[in-house]
Structure formats: structure tokens, C-alpha cells
Amino acid sequence: MMQDPEKVTVPLFTAVDREVFLREIYQMRIPAVLRGVSLGPCLDKWTVDYLREKGGDREVKVHVSPVPQMDFLHKNFLYRTLPFDVFVQRAAETKHSDFFISEEESYYLRSLGDDPRREPADLRKQFPGLAEDFSIPQFFEPEQFFSCVFRISSCGLQLWTHYDVMDNLLAQVSGRKRVVLYSPRDAQHLYLSGDKSEVLDIDSPDLERYPEFVKARRYECVLEPGDLLFIPALWFHNTLALQFGVGVNVFWRHLRAESYDKKDIYGNKDPVAAARAMQVLERALQALEELPPDYRDFYGRRMVLRIQSCAYSSEPEVAVQGCSPIKTLAASNSETSVPGSLSHPD
Ligand SMILES: O=C(O)CCC(=O)C(=O)O
């Protein structure tokens, strides 16, 4: 019989200040929904009309897809450039009179820096008029700041499962959004292609092709307007806009600045030491190619054992240790939460 994936609700915290965040969430390296943190007047102000007027006609590069589930494997989407106000109008409507592919195409904006090849995005530079409505939560040290990115999606838009190498505070300003996350420890069940999982349909995966996928523990939450989601570096995430939605995410460095690739503008290039280790591994695998298959198998297994004993953490996964009891999704959906602490809805 096919095993069901283990499901866990992302813990919900209310009345979180910097001290609670640093002590109870940041240290544990687990995702958490933070409700009630002040994000500024954007929550009331950012209607479609206001965004169009204040954001103006600055050009933005957007993803346009014929279906809401974007597929990076088969590149079922196009990149197109539109004035911001036109883009917002199209992302907010469900049927378009002007379109690139079809009347029902979906739109997604991940904003970029002024010089997209050299500079990370910063809402304060690209959209200063709108940025003054958004307060960046001050949970980190200013020198940890990396980028501040607009995320605007058509209703139904689903972004593939991927990881980033920076810590992330994803603020949902309008519209509801489902987010599914997987621990870095479950990487071996996710069929990775670089930083992305090849399993696009996470709700109904092809288990003949991806039999291991059910072994990945699924963390899930639905963000309401005003919620912040803390996504620690290396945690995989998949987003599904349940409505037209506007979000802003802020990436923060978790490691020292020199640990990161200087050319990284998206916050998703592996840290320098990790990239070097992966290159050395590729060279080691090439060396094994010189051996006959049974020797390659034997020395391959010895290498795996060495990696397991030297690099794997002996700590149990914090999410299990630190967050129990976590309500599983199979249980009731009603949530209660304790100010400044984990919710224990059961
Ligand atoms: O909210 C979204 O649309 C995607 C968010 C995301 O991938 C991120 O913040 O890294």
C-alpha cells in the first residue's frame, strides 16, 4: 500500500517581537507563521488602483504562463516586459482582452534590481512610493539585509518547489497564499534539479516516477493578509496563490557576508564553500569512472559512508524536537495561538 506523506502545520506565533523571534524561532531554524507583526499602511492601502497609480509605468519583467502551474522543466512560461500598472491590472483580472498567449494566462512578478545582472532587488529603490507604505520587520541586524522583493501573482499561480540560501521573511500583504515547505533534511526525497524539485504537482505527484516523494514530510500553512512567514535558508518552499496576491519578501544573510557568492543577486547561489565541495565531488565521481563497475560501486559506497559520518548532523531534526506537539493536517483545522509562543491547537 502507498504510504501517505507526513503532514505538519507550520507553527503559528502571535505578538512576536524581535526578542521572541530571535530566541524562539530564529535559533530553531524552523519555518514559522508570524501573525500581527506591523507591516505598515500597505495592508489597507495596496488596492489594485492604488498600486497602479503609485507604482506607475516603470517596466517590469514578468512570467506569463498559459496555465497557473508554472513548469520550469518544460518552460511552459514566457518572460515578457510590461509597464507595472498594466501588469498589476492583468494579474488582478481572470480574463484578459490584451494577452500574450491566451485570454486566461497567469502572471507572476518577482521584482529585480535596477541593474538586474548586478544588483539584488530593493523595493525602496525600484518602487520608492510604494515602499514607504511597507515596514520591513526589524528582526535582523541591518548588515544582514540582502534584498527586498515584490511578489505579485495571479489567482491560482503556483511556483515550483525550490530553496534559497538566505533566510527569508515573506510578507503577505493582500490575498491568501498556501505555502508548502520541506526540510533540507528531506532533500533526498525531492528529486532535485539544482535548487528546484522536479516534482511539480506536489498535491498529486506521479509516484511511479517519483516514488520517494511520499517520504518527504510536508509542512503547510495558509498565509492571510498581514502574515509573515519565516523561511529559514535551505528550506524548500512551494507557493500557491489562492487569490490575486501581493507580497514582499526580504532576504537576510544567515552566514557571514564572505560565505556567499558575490555574484548572487537572487539569494539562491550555493555558498562558496558548498559550491566548491560540490565541484570536488564531481571530480571524485569522474575519477571513479576509471574503475570497473564493481570497484566503482564499492568505492562509491565507501565515499557515501565517509560523507555520512563526517558531514551529516547527529542532532535530531529540530522541527520534531522543538515543536512537538505539532498539529497534523489530518486533525481539526481550527487554530488557537498563544501570544509570543508556539500554538498548541490540540
Ligand atoms: O510568494 C511567492 O510567490 C514566492 C516566494 C518565494 O519563493 C520566496 O520568497 O523565496
Automatic annotation (TrEMBL):
Keywords: Dioxygenase, Iron, Metal-binding, Oxidoreductase, tRNA processing. One of its GO terms (biological process) is wybutosine biosynthetic process. One of its GO terms (molecular function) is tRNA(Phe) (7-(3-amino-3-carboxypropyl)wyosine37-C2)-hydroxylase activity. Pathway: tRNA modification; wybutosine-tRNA(Phe) biosynthesis. It comes from the Eukaryota. It catalyses: 7-[(3S)-3-amino-3-carboxypropyl]wyosine(37) in tRNA(Phe) + 2-oxoglutarate + O2 = 7-(2-hydroxy-3-amino-3-carboxypropyl)wyosine(37) in tRNA(Phe) + succinate + CO2. The keyword Iron applies. It holds the Pfam family Cupin_8. Residues 116-269 form the JmjC domain. Its EC number is 1.14.11.42. It is an enzyme of class 1 (oxidoreductase). Its cofactor is Fe(2+). Belongs to the TYW5 family. Homodimer. tRNA hydroxylase that acts as a component of the wybutosine biosynthesis pathway. Wybutosine is a hyper modified guanosine with a tricyclic base found at the 3'-position adjacent to the anticodon of eukaryotic phenylalanine tRNA. Catalyzes the hydroxylation of 7-(a-amino-a-carboxypropyl)wyosine (yW-72) into undermodified hydroxywybutosine (OHyW*). OHyW* being further transformed into hydroxywybutosine (OHyW) by LCMT2/TYW4. OHyW is a derivative of wybutosine found in higher eukaryotes. This is tRNA wybutosine-synthesizing protein 5.
